[in-house]
Protein backbone atom coordinates (compact mmCIF):
# COMPACT_ATOMS: atom_id res chain seq x y z
CA UNK A 1 0.00 0.00 0.00
CA UNK A 2 1.54 3.22 -1.01
CA UNK A 3 0.97 6.83 -1.59
CA UNK A 4 -1.73 8.49 -3.65
CA UNK A 5 -0.62 9.87 -6.95
CA UNK A 6 -0.46 13.50 -7.88
CA UNK A 7 -2.12 14.62 -11.05
CA UNK A 8 0.39 14.47 -13.82
CA UNK A 9 0.39 13.73 -17.47
CA UNK A 10 2.64 10.74 -16.95
CA UNK A 11 0.43 9.19 -14.29
CA UNK A 12 -2.67 9.88 -16.36
CA UNK A 13 -0.96 8.33 -19.37
CA UNK A 14 -0.15 5.24 -17.41
CA UNK A 15 -3.67 5.20 -15.99
CA UNK A 16 -5.08 5.10 -19.49
CA UNK A 17 -3.08 1.98 -20.16
CA UNK A 18 -3.72 0.14 -16.97
CA UNK A 19 -6.26 1.03 -14.36
CA UNK A 20 -8.75 -0.51 -12.05
CA UNK A 21 -11.70 1.29 -10.66
CA UNK A 22 -12.94 0.78 -7.15
CA UNK A 23 -16.42 2.13 -6.52
CA UNK A 24 -17.03 2.77 -2.82
CA UNK A 25 -20.41 3.97 -1.60
CA UNK A 26 -20.70 5.93 1.63
CA UNK A 27 -24.05 5.64 3.37
CA UNK A 28 -25.71 6.59 6.64
CA UNK A 29 -28.12 9.08 8.19
CA UNK A 30 -28.20 12.73 7.20
CA UNK A 31 -25.60 14.86 8.92
CA UNK A 32 -23.27 12.08 10.09
CA UNK A 33 -20.40 13.50 8.02
CA UNK A 34 -20.35 11.49 4.77
CA UNK A 35 -19.55 14.54 2.68
CA UNK A 36 -16.86 15.71 5.08
CA UNK A 37 -15.17 12.30 5.21
CA UNK A 38 -15.04 11.87 1.45
CA UNK A 39 -13.91 15.45 0.97
CA UNK A 40 -11.21 15.01 3.58
CA UNK A 41 -9.92 11.87 1.89
CA UNK A 42 -9.81 13.47 -1.55
CA UNK A 43 -8.46 16.90 -0.64
CA UNK A 44 -6.91 16.50 2.81
CA UNK A 45 -9.16 19.32 4.04
CA UNK A 46 -12.24 19.55 6.24
CA UNK A 47 -14.78 21.56 4.23
CA UNK A 48 -15.64 24.89 5.79
CA UNK A 49 -19.27 24.52 4.78
CA UNK A 50 -21.48 21.69 3.55
CA UNK A 51 -25.06 21.40 2.39
CA UNK A 52 -27.32 18.36 2.48
CA UNK A 53 -26.37 16.06 -0.36
CA UNK A 54 -29.05 15.85 -3.01
CA UNK A 55 -28.99 12.50 -4.75
CA UNK A 56 -25.27 12.02 -4.96
CA UNK A 57 -21.90 13.71 -4.83
CA UNK A 58 -19.12 12.03 -6.68
CA UNK A 59 -15.44 12.34 -5.85
CA UNK A 60 -12.42 10.35 -6.88
CA UNK A 61 -8.79 9.85 -6.04
CA UNK A 62 -6.04 7.95 -7.73
CA UNK A 63 -4.09 5.57 -5.50
CA UNK A 64 -1.15 3.33 -6.06
CA UNK A 65 -1.58 0.07 -4.21
CA UNK A 66 1.11 -2.58 -4.40
CA UNK A 67 2.28 -1.28 -7.76
CA UNK A 68 -1.17 -1.06 -9.28
CA UNK A 69 -3.03 2.14 -9.97
CA UNK A 70 -6.49 2.21 -8.56
CA UNK A 71 -9.05 4.86 -9.36
CA UNK A 72 -11.09 5.11 -6.17
CA UNK A 73 -14.55 6.46 -6.91
CA UNK A 74 -16.37 7.65 -3.81
CA UNK A 75 -20.13 7.90 -4.07
CA UNK A 76 -21.26 10.23 -1.32
CA UNK A 77 -24.95 9.41 -1.02
CA UNK A 78 -27.79 11.51 0.35
CA UNK A 79 -28.83 10.71 3.92
CA UNK A 80 -32.25 12.28 3.60
CA UNK A 81 -34.84 9.94 2.17
CA UNK A 82 -36.43 12.60 -0.04
CA UNK A 83 -33.04 13.34 -1.67
CA UNK A 84 -32.08 9.71 -2.31
CA UNK A 85 -35.25 7.95 -3.44
CA UNK A 86 -34.72 8.10 -7.18
CA UNK A 87 -30.99 7.38 -6.91
CA UNK A 88 -30.85 4.20 -4.87
CA UNK A 89 -30.48 1.90 -7.88
CA UNK A 90 -27.50 3.92 -9.10
CA UNK A 91 -25.81 3.74 -5.72
CA UNK A 92 -25.65 -0.02 -5.57
CA UNK A 93 -24.78 -0.89 -9.15
CA UNK A 94 -21.31 -2.46 -9.47
CA UNK A 95 -20.24 -1.57 -5.96
CA UNK A 96 -16.85 -2.82 -4.80
CA UNK A 97 -16.98 -1.67 -1.18
CA UNK A 98 -19.31 0.01 1.29
CA UNK A 99 -18.75 2.46 4.13
CA UNK A 100 -21.49 2.82 6.75
CA UNK A 101 -21.23 5.98 8.84
CA UNK A 102 -22.79 7.03 12.13
CA UNK A 103 -22.25 10.05 14.33
CA UNK A 104 -20.82 9.51 17.82
CA UNK A 105 -23.00 12.36 19.14
CA UNK A 106 -26.19 11.05 17.56
CA UNK A 107 -27.45 7.71 18.94
CA UNK A 108 -30.31 7.51 16.45
CA UNK A 109 -27.78 7.48 13.59
CA UNK A 110 -26.41 4.34 15.24
CA UNK A 111 -29.88 2.81 15.79
CA UNK A 112 -30.65 3.28 12.09
CA UNK A 113 -27.61 1.31 10.93
CA UNK A 114 -29.52 -2.00 10.63
CA UNK A 115 -31.78 -0.27 8.10
CA UNK A 116 -28.81 0.78 5.99
CA UNK A 117 -27.26 -2.68 6.27
CA UNK A 118 -30.55 -4.17 5.23
CA UNK A 119 -30.87 -1.85 2.25
CA UNK A 120 -27.48 -3.12 1.09
CA UNK A 121 -28.60 -6.68 1.50
CA UNK A 122 -31.75 -5.99 -0.50
CA UNK A 123 -29.55 -4.81 -3.33
CA UNK A 124 -27.82 -8.18 -3.24
CA UNK A 125 -24.61 -7.00 -1.70
CA UNK A 126 -23.32 -10.01 0.16
CA UNK A 127 -20.93 -10.12 3.08
CA UNK A 128 -18.10 -10.80 0.69
CA UNK A 129 -18.18 -7.15 -0.44
CA UNK A 130 -15.62 -5.38 1.79
CA UNK A 131 -17.41 -3.11 4.25
CA UNK A 132 -16.42 -0.72 7.00
CA UNK A 133 -18.34 0.84 9.85
CA UNK A 134 -17.24 4.36 10.70
CA UNK A 135 -18.06 6.17 13.92
CA UNK A 136 -17.44 9.78 12.92
CA UNK A 137 -16.99 13.08 14.82
CA UNK A 138 -14.56 11.50 17.28
CA UNK A 139 -13.37 15.03 18.09
CA UNK A 140 -16.72 15.49 19.87
CA UNK A 141 -16.54 12.22 21.81
CA UNK A 142 -16.88 12.43 25.59
CA UNK A 143 -17.39 10.07 28.51
CA UNK A 144 -21.04 9.66 27.61
CA UNK A 145 -20.28 8.51 24.07
CA UNK A 146 -18.09 5.55 25.02
CA UNK A 147 -21.05 3.16 25.22
CA UNK A 148 -22.10 4.04 21.68
CA UNK A 149 -18.55 3.48 20.46
CA UNK A 150 -18.47 0.03 22.06
CA UNK A 151 -21.86 -0.80 20.55
CA UNK A 152 -20.46 0.26 17.19
CA UNK A 153 -17.48 -2.05 17.59
CA UNK A 154 -19.78 -4.90 18.50
CA UNK A 155 -22.10 -4.32 15.53
CA UNK A 156 -19.11 -4.26 13.20
CA UNK A 157 -17.91 -7.55 14.62
CA UNK A 158 -21.32 -9.17 14.24
CA UNK A 159 -21.47 -8.11 10.60
CA UNK A 160 -17.79 -8.90 9.99
CA UNK A 161 -16.85 -5.35 9.06
CA UNK A 162 -13.82 -3.27 9.99
CA UNK A 163 -14.55 -0.59 12.58
CA UNK A 164 -13.07 2.91 12.59
CA UNK A 165 -13.42 5.72 15.09
CA UNK A 166 -12.60 8.83 13.09
CA UNK A 167 -13.04 12.52 12.75
CA UNK A 168 -13.26 14.20 9.39
CA UNK A 169 -12.31 17.36 11.26
CA UNK A 170 -9.49 16.11 13.48
CA UNK A 171 -5.74 16.30 13.01
CA UNK A 172 -5.17 12.70 12.09
CA UNK A 173 -5.57 12.48 8.36
CA UNK A 174 -4.24 8.91 8.48
CA UNK A 175 -7.37 7.68 10.17
CA UNK A 176 -9.60 8.80 7.31
CA UNK A 177 -7.18 7.58 4.66
CA UNK A 178 -7.05 4.17 6.28
CA UNK A 179 -10.76 3.54 5.75
CA UNK A 180 -10.72 4.03 2.00
CA UNK A 181 -7.24 2.73 1.25
CA UNK A 182 -7.89 -0.48 3.19
CA UNK A 183 -11.19 -1.07 1.40
CA UNK A 184 -9.61 -0.41 -1.99
CA UNK A 185 -6.84 -2.83 -1.13
CA UNK A 186 -9.26 -5.52 0.02
CA UNK A 187 -11.34 -5.09 -3.09
CA UNK A 188 -8.25 -5.27 -5.28
CA UNK A 189 -7.07 -8.46 -3.62
CA UNK A 190 -10.50 -10.00 -3.88
CA UNK A 191 -10.81 -9.18 -7.54
CA UNK A 192 -7.20 -10.14 -8.14
CA UNK A 193 -8.09 -13.66 -7.19
CA UNK A 194 -10.69 -13.70 -9.94
CA UNK A 195 -9.05 -11.61 -12.64
CA UNK A 196 -5.32 -11.51 -12.56
CA UNK A 197 -4.85 -8.64 -14.95
CA UNK A 198 -5.54 -4.95 -15.34
CA UNK A 199 -8.89 -3.87 -16.64
CA UNK A 200 -8.63 -1.46 -19.56
CA UNK A 201 -10.27 1.89 -18.87
CA UNK A 202 -12.85 1.34 -21.58
CA UNK A 203 -14.16 -1.80 -19.93
CA UNK A 204 -13.80 -1.01 -16.27
CA UNK A 205 -16.57 -1.92 -13.90
CA UNK A 206 -18.02 1.54 -13.44
CA UNK A 207 -17.88 3.77 -16.48
CA UNK A 208 -18.30 7.51 -16.35
CA UNK A 209 -21.49 7.21 -18.33
CA UNK A 210 -22.98 5.42 -15.34
CA UNK A 211 -22.60 8.48 -13.16
CA UNK A 212 -26.03 10.09 -13.18
CA UNK A 213 -26.44 13.06 -15.48
CA UNK A 214 -25.65 16.40 -13.95
CA UNK A 215 -23.29 14.95 -11.35
CA UNK A 216 -20.15 14.49 -13.39
CA UNK A 217 -19.06 17.92 -14.44
CA UNK A 218 -20.11 20.12 -11.58
CA UNK A 219 -18.75 17.75 -8.99
CA UNK A 220 -15.42 17.57 -10.77
CA UNK A 221 -15.21 21.31 -10.85
CA UNK A 222 -15.70 21.45 -7.10
CA UNK A 223 -14.05 18.34 -5.76
CA UNK A 224 -11.99 16.26 -8.05
CA UNK A 225 -8.46 15.52 -7.01
CA UNK A 226 -6.60 15.04 -10.21
CA UNK A 227 -8.46 16.61 -13.08
N1 LIG B 1 -17.04 18.27 14.80
C1 LIG B 1 -17.21 17.59 13.66
N2 LIG B 1 -18.16 17.95 12.79
C2 LIG B 1 -18.30 17.24 11.66
C3 LIG B 1 -17.49 16.12 11.34
N3 LIG B 1 -17.89 15.62 10.15
C4 LIG B 1 -18.91 16.38 9.75
N4 LIG B 1 -19.16 17.36 10.64
C5 LIG B 1 -20.22 18.38 10.56
O1 LIG B 1 -21.47 17.71 10.50
C6 LIG B 1 -22.35 18.39 9.62
C7 LIG B 1 -22.87 17.45 8.54
O2 LIG B 1 -21.77 17.01 7.75
P1 LIG B 1 -21.98 16.41 6.27
O3 LIG B 1 -20.66 15.88 5.85
O4 LIG B 1 -22.61 17.42 5.40
O5 LIG B 1 -23.03 15.24 6.56
P2 LIG B 1 -23.65 14.20 5.52
O6 LIG B 1 -23.67 12.88 6.18
O7 LIG B 1 -22.94 14.28 4.21
O8 LIG B 1 -25.16 14.76 5.38
P3 LIG B 1 -26.21 14.53 4.16
O9 LIG B 1 -25.56 15.04 2.91
O10 LIG B 1 -27.42 15.34 4.55
O11 LIG B 1 -26.53 13.07 4.11
C8 LIG B 1 -21.59 19.59 9.06
O12 LIG B 1 -21.92 20.73 9.83
C9 LIG B 1 -20.13 19.22 9.28
O13 LIG B 1 -19.30 20.35 9.47
C10 LIG B 1 -16.47 15.75 12.29
O14 LIG B 1 -15.70 14.79 12.14
N5 LIG B 1 -16.38 16.52 13.44
Automatic annotation (TrEMBL):
Pfam families: Ras. It comes from the Eukaryota. SUPFAM superfamilies: P-loop containing nucleoside triphosphate hydrolases. GO terms for molecular function: GTP binding; GTPase activity. InterPro entries: P-loop_NTPase, Small_GTP-bd, Small_GTPase. Keywords: GTP-binding, Nucleotide-binding. SMART domains: ARF, RAB, RAN, RAS, RHO. PANTHER family: PTHR47978. Belongs to the small GTPase superfamily. Rab family. This is Ras-related protein. It comes from Triplophysa tibetana.
Amino acid sequence: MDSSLESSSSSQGHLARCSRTCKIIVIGDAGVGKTCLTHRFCTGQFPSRTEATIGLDFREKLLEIEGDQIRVQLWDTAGQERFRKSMVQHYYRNVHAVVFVFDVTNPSSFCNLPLWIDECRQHTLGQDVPRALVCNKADLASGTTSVLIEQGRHLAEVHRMSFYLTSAKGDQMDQVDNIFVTLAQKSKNQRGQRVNECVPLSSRAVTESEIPAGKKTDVRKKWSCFY
